[in-house]
Amino acid sequence: MNSESVDELINKGNSLVDKGKYEEAIKFYDKALKINPQDVVALTNKGTALDQLGRYEDAVECFDNVLEINPKDAEAINNKGSSLIKLNRYEEAIECFNEALTINPNNFVTHYNKGIAQGKLGKYEEAIRSYDATIKIVPDYAIAIYSKGATLLNLASQLSCDKRVKKTEEALELFKTVWKMRKKIPDKGKELQSSFQDSMTDIFLILVEQCGSEGLRAAHKIKDFLCDVLDQKMYSDFLEEMQLNVPADLKQYREVIALLDEPCPKRKK
Question: Which residue, 84, 81, 136, 79, is CA-closest to 105?
Answer without folding.
Answer: 136
